């Protein structure tokens, strides 16, 4: 009797093949220009490190090198690899919790009805859409090195999308590229200066996915709800498919995930615009045109963005940046940086929408605890009389929900040679496969992409 294979929810190879087949080619760029763009993006990613660290006061605990530059197919392969790192251990846990492969009727209420290959096609199709829009991301989850050590993360930039966007906006290429690098470098600093944050994000994602326990009947109910969500969006109403598949328990976890994503993205936008005037001369023009582009798009594009939750991401940029601006304006950058100290100091979703709550809970409470006790109060305590007031009652700790959140699992990327080196197509030299991919992704006149969206913890891309 043969060995029983474990349940597979997603065919990863199908996801990669579907995504790379459906993704549109990049803008038409000649080879010298492509090479210059790749090299400049690497240089500017290093330049951005100094500006971000000096402005934020955050100190990374590991060295940061130049960004990895990829093309659209390379971004898809990287993100599928990242999804595997995060999801495969969880899929195995789900199978074991439900009795192993023999319990495929339980794990597979989704698997048997949809099928791993169909799921792979769905994932690939979504990634092909995003691959034409994402400008860059900080990849949190990477496959292990050959020696088995898991890398801590990597900064990735999608060269064709950056070139496409700067052309469409008619802005200065160097200014725009540095502006994008400032945002993405901010994400790298957030996670490398706060090493606990990566584990927290992964923990929240694992908890979210493991809280799924639906049978076939429940799945059909949620499938109907998803259908209704699609109809609502097409009619111009609010809604998205992701929300239709969430249980109440998942909604609570998602609030924590959303909170940390909103903080990370808003902080990235705040830093890129605050540092911009000093190092990006045309930053105001870039921001105005980019924001207009984020809010634009044709009707079909808007429907797709809303269905897969990208409109929620646009809202996160605005809410997160507003939170950072108000807190920094009220208590300064050093006190704001307490958000990165621990999971307890992360803001809740409620606090992001009302920054005063976070300031009172985290900053003011510490100030009260550190304040010297007045002599009169000490005398009162010695004689047994009650002091005139209790500092504990003045702290607003009631709203301190469990903080949390997860930045988009800025999925892992393999250092694909595609855009890392731009050699002449057809070369037999090392990296020639990458060179051909880069060349084929840049020189093409068939690009009619509407452009970037902003994740993954992922530029001002309008993911």
UniProtKB/TrEMBL annotation:
Pfam family, one: Zincin_2
Stretches for region Disordered: 375-463
Keywords: Hydrolase
Residue ranges, compositional bias (Low complexity): 375-385, 392-443
Compositionally biased spans, kind Pro residues: 451-463
Molecular function in Gene Ontology: hydrolase activity
InterPro entries the record matches: CHP03883_F420-assoc, Zinicin_2, Zinicin_2_N
PANTHER family per record: HYDROLASE, PTHR39420
The protein's name in its UniProt record: Putative hydrolase/coenzyme F420 biosynthesis associated uncharacterized protein
């Amino acid at each position: 009797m043969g060995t029983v294979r474990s349940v597979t929810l997603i065919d990863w190879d199908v996801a990669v093949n579907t995504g790379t087949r459906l993704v549109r080619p990049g803008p038409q760029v000649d080879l010298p220009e492509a090479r210059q763009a790749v090299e400049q993006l690497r240089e500017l990613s290093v330049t951005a490190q100094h500006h971000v660290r000096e402005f934020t006061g955050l100190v990374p605990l590991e060295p940061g090198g130049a960004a990895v530059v990829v093309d659209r197919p390379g971004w898809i392969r990287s993100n599928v690899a990242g999804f595997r790192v995060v999801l495969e251990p969880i899929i195995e846990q789900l199978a074991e919790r439900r009795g192993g492969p023999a319990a495929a009727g339980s794990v597979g209420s989704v698997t048997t009805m949809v099928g791993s290959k169909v799921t792979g096609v769905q994932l690939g199709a979504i990634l092909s859409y995003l691959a034409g829009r994402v400008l860059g991301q900080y990849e949190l989850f990477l496959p292990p090195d050959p020696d088995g050590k898991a890398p801590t993360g990597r900064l990735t930039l999608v060269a064709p999308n950056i070139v496409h966007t700067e052309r469409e906006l008619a802005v200065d290429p160097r200014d725009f590229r540095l502006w994008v690098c400032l945002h993405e470098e901010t994400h790298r600093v957030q996670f490398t200066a706060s090493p606990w944050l990566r584990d927290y994000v992964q923990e929240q994602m694992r908890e979210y996915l493991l809280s799924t326990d639906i049978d076939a009947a429940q799945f059909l109910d949620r499938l109907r709800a998803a259908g209704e969500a699609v109809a609502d969006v097409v009619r111009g109403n609010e809604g998205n498919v992701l929300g239709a598949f969430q249980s109440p328990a998942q909604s609570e976890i998602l609030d924590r995930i959303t909170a940390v994503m909103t903080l990370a993205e808003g902080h990235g936008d705040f830093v890129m615009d605050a540092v911009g005037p000093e190092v990006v001369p045309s930053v105001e023009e870039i921001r105005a045109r980019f924001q207009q582009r984020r809010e634009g798009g044709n009707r079909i594009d808007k429907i797709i963005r809303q269905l897969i939750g990208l409109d929620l991401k646009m809202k996160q940029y605005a809410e997160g940046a507003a939170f950072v601006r108000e807190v920094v304006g009220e208590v300064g950058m050093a006190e704001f940086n307490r958000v990165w100290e621990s999971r307890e100091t992360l803001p809740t979703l409620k606090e992001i929408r009302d920054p005063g709550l976070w300031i009172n809970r985290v900053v003011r409470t510490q100030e009260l605890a550190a304040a010297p006790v007045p002599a009169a109060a000490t005398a009162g305590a010695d004689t047994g009389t009650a002091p005139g007031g209790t500092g504990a009652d003045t702290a607003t700790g009631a709203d301190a929900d469990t903080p949390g959140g997860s930045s988009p699992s800025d999925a892992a990327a393999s250092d694909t040679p595609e855009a890392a080196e731009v050699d002449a197509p057809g070369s037999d030299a090392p990296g020639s496969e990458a060179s051909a991919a880069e060349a084929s992704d840049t020189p093409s006149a068939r690009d009619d992409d509407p452009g970037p969206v902003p994740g993954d913890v992922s530029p001002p891309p309008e993911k």
